[in-house]
DNA sequence: CTGTTATTTAGAAATTTATCTAAATACTCT
DNA sequence: AGAGTATTTAGATAAATTTCTAAATAACAG
């Protein structure tokens, strides 16, 4: 279930920071890695988890790979949280 | 930062199921444990993580401990996701 | 106080996760 | 084709997580 993957992906602070970095637009793997005190391999690992969770999409341009947010999955998570909060099945406020 | 704890707490399927069980009202540790094929000790461990994340509150009644949802923390998470989705640079700091 | 029930804590084992280094792949440019 | 850069993959390791059993606490009833 991709849903569980999404929560798992969000559970790591590095991955959350990556997502926040992508709010304003796509960045290449290298640009992302440059912001962290970790090897590129480690960032690649985190990106693979975000990708598997469908929280990011990749686009290849020249010999760069750009990563961008996929907000539709974020919406799904918000829906789940909404349900949790709702308790009574009446409401569905956004 | 309790915020990180919250995401971590949400990353486990058992804990998410516990939260869903609490939507319609509080349940005792034993009532919760009865729904899972795990020992009470394990459920107690999960409850302690949810409690540390402030996703649940406990109330002692007789020799039972009741657990109930704390929805305000859920709102905080939704706010974070909102920010992510929004991409608005006007309010990036929390 | 004694005994019973509900729950948590402690300690240990199995699994998963995050990280590194080194090597491999992929793509570009001349 | 060959060199150079960007990124990923493989393999290893340390740390964190989940789970269990057994023991400890806490609260109640008689």
What is the name of the CATH architecture of chain A? Orthogonal Bundle
CATH topology of chain A: Arc Repressor Mutant, subunit A
Shape of chain A: elongated
Largest interface: A-B, 24 and 26 residues
Q: In whole angstroms, how far apart are the ends of chain A? A: 25 Å
Which structural class matches the secondary elements of chain A? alpha+beta
Overall radius of gyration of chain A = 15 Å
Oligomer type: homodimer
As laid out across the biggest beta sheet of chain A, the strand order is 1-3-2
Series of H and E elements of chain A: HHEHHEEH
Beta-strand fraction estimate of chain A: 5-15%
Identify the CATH homologous superfamily of chain A: Winged helix-like DNA-binding domain superfamily/Winged helix DNA-binding domain
What does this structure look like?
Two copies of one chain form a homodimer. Chain A has a single domain, classed as Winged helix-like DNA-binding domain superfamily/Winged helix DNA-binding domain (Arc Repressor Mutant, subunit A, Orthogonal Bundle), CATH 1.10.10. Residues 90-94 of chain A have low confidence and may be disordered. The two termini of chain A are 25 Å apart. In chain A, helix 1 (2-10) packs antiparallel against helix 4 (40-52). Chain A has helices at residues 2-10, 13-21, 29-33, 40-52, 71-86; strands at 27-28, 56-61, 64-69. Chain A has a three-stranded antiparallel β-sheet. Chain A is α+β, with helices and mostly antiparallel strands and 94 residues long. Chain A is 55% helix and 15% strand. Chain A is built from five helices and three strands; from the N terminus they run ααβααββα. At the A-B interface, helix 1, helix 2 and helix 5 of A face helix 1, helix 2 and helix 5 of B. Chain A binds a DNA duplex (30 and 30 nucleotides) through helix 3 and helix 4.
């Amino acid at each position: 279930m991709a849903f569980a993957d999404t929560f798992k992906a969000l559970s790591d602070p590095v991955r959350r920071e990556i997502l926040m970095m992508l709010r304003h637009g796509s960045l290449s793997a290298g640009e992302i890695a440059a912001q962290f005190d970790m090897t590129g391999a480690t960032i690649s690992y985190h990106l693979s988890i975000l990708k598997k969770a469908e929280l990011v999409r990749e686009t290849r341009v020249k010999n760069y790979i750009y990563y961008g947010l996929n907000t539709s999955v974020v919406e799904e998570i918000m829906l789940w949280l909404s349900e949790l909060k709702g308790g009574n099945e009446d409401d569905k406020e956004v």
